[in-house]
Amino acid sequence: MKLCLWLIALFLTGCAIIPTPNDFPPPPPMTPIVEWPQATATAVIEPRLRPILSSDMQDAETFFLILKTSMAAGDDTGIAKLVKYPLHVKLGEENILFKDQHEFLDLYEKIFDNDFISSIFEIDESTLTLFPDGVRTGTGELWFNYFCTDLTCSDAQFLITQINK
After folding, report:
1. What angle is formed at CA 138 by the lines to CA 160 and CA 110, rounded to 5 degrees?
2. Helix, strand, coil percent values for the chain (each to nearest 5)
3. How far apart are alpha carbons 154 and 50 in whole angstroms?
4. What secondary structure does DSSP assign to 74-140, as a single string?
5. Rounded to whole angstroms, how far apart are CA atoms 70 and 158?
6. Tens-place pLDDT, residues 45-59
7. What pTM did the predictor assign?
8. Of 58, 66, 92, 124, which has fewest CB within 10 angstroms of its CB?
9. What CATH number has the domain spanning 54-164?
């Protein structure tokens, strides 16, 4: 009998060790918001030009080949990522300014129609011309330039800067 009472007493003291929800301290008081958060301007890295050296022309030819491959595959979003915005596009007598990829993709079919794509495919990569303001394809259908991708300009990529149709 003593053993049974001793086990019951041990069991009851063991149960008292397990915390119940009321044993936890109350949460700290809520801190009221005194001011609304203010929107602050954040710095955006604007791609800056990097001079194109004659040794970079092999990279320019590769970029143009990738661009032609994307056109053949119908990769409109891929081409839109290869554009430096804002982009001025000359469609006949009309000059259009595209501020971002969404605007560009809305008129992609109008810019890259079959005639324009076939004229781009007739241009050989080895006939790209280097000018002070970028690389010209053919008679100026496309222009692209070299832009830094980081602050130190240790890495750069070509981006389309002008489309003339």
Report:
1. 55
2. 40, 20, 40
3. 10
4. T-HHHHHTTEEEEEEEEETTEEEEE-SHHHHHHTHHHHS-HHHHHHHHTS-GGG-EEETTEEE-TTT
5. 15
6. 566 778 888 888 999
7. 0.69
8. 92
9. 3.10.450
